[in-house]
Amino acid sequence: MTSLAKSVAAVFVGGVLGTSARLGLDYVIPHGDDDFPVSTLLINVVGSALLGLLVAGIGPDARGWLRAGLGPGLLGSFTTFSAVMVSLVSLTAGNQFGSALLYLVMSVMLGFAAALLGLRVGHRAVQRRGEQP
Question: From CA 64, how far away is CA 118, in angstroms rounded?
Fold first, then answer.
């Protein structure tokens, strides 16, 4: 199997798993169109942290097909910008402008903080592996 074929297969499998996990969390933490989208916010913050961890801690040592499967495949399908936009549109359509603004700010700020945390944890893990004999 070629490197490209392995990467495509890994992205496919990761995509199925990430989408399934996202759907599962949406069932566990349901919200209506006019409710604050807690599950989408949680999914995107956790996904941001995991992607930061992947990039810094696992990515440099992992094979290309594994990085593709975990990054764009698993985490790319688990998190999604379009879900944020749909939630924002639903909140504003319900005249919940304050909640929409709060959700947007929280999504960006918490996503950024989670990605930064993931990067730092990943870098520390790489440094510790380097320090061990």
Answer: 20
40 is in an annotated binding site: no
Residue 120 identity: R
pTM: 0.78
Domain ranges for the chain, please list them.
Answer: 3-131
Residue type, 108: V
Q: Record the tokens describing residue 110, joined without a space.
A: 């918490």
The answer on whether 64 is annotated among ligand-binding residues is no
Residues 6 or more apart whose CB falls under 8 angstroms from that of 64 comprise 3, 6, 7
Could you give the angle at which helices 3-28 and 38-53 cross, rounded to 10 degrees?
A: 150
* pLDDT tens-place string over residues 44-94: 999 999 988 888 877 667 888 998 899 889 998 998 887 888 888 889 989
- Which residue's entry shows tokens 């440094």? 127
Q: Rounded to 5 degrees, what angle do the CA atoms 63, 75, 14 make?
A: 60
- What token pair was written down for 130? 């380097």
Residue with tokens 């996904």: 47
- Tokens linked to 3: 């490197």
